[in-house]
Amino acid sequence: MSYSPFFKYFPEIAEHETRTVTVFDHSAFNLPPAHYSFLEMFCNEPGCDCRRVFLSVVSSLQKDDVLAVIYWGWEKRDYYAKWMGFGDPTLIEDLIGPGLNLASPQSSYAPALLNLFRNLLLKDAAYVARIKEHYAMFRQKIDE
Asked: pTM of the full predicted structure?
């Protein structure tokens, strides 16, 4: 599975709808004050319906560096077991929920950014719906 950025196919939408969190106080989420943008990437394999997003997190302090790559699979265990065609609990567990992508380089801020994603962004129903909507748009474009 390979992933492509949402902005590659929908640059205008991504420009307006990419979530950026501004941290003003270092004690908030244990991150230095900065703007943190969560850039969405989705699977670009035709016919795939993995229902996952990878988020490359960049900051206004280090614009060229990805500080974390977070994955999020929003479906339940049963969906991924059926999607994979077998029930290997270890592999299925790696598809569910938010986490840090172990195959990507991560900065020392990655755990704090995952915490911010888990405890702030995922509690925002509008943001969760937006990711799912972007996923559907992306899938339609790839599968055309």
From this structure: 0.92
For tokens 């909507």, the residue is 133
Instruction: State the alpha helices, DSSP H only, in 5-124.
Output: 6-9, 11-17, 77-84, 89-93, 110-119
What is the rounded CA–CA span in Å between residue 44 and residue 6?
Answer: 10
φ, ψ (nearest 5 deg) of residue 51:
55, 55
Residue 36 contacts residue 55 (beta carbons within 8 Å)? no
Which residues 6+ apart lie within 8 Å of 15 measured at CB?
7
- The beta-carbon contacts of 120-123 under 8 Å, at least 24 apart in sequence, are 120/21, 120/29, 121/19, 121/21, 121/38, 122/72, 122/98
- Average of per-residue pLDDT values in the chain: 92
Which residue matches tokens 């755990």?
111
User: Distance from first CA to last CA of the chain, Å, rounded?
Assistant: 18
Q: Give the count of beta carbons closer than 10 Å to the beta carbon of residue 64.
A: 5
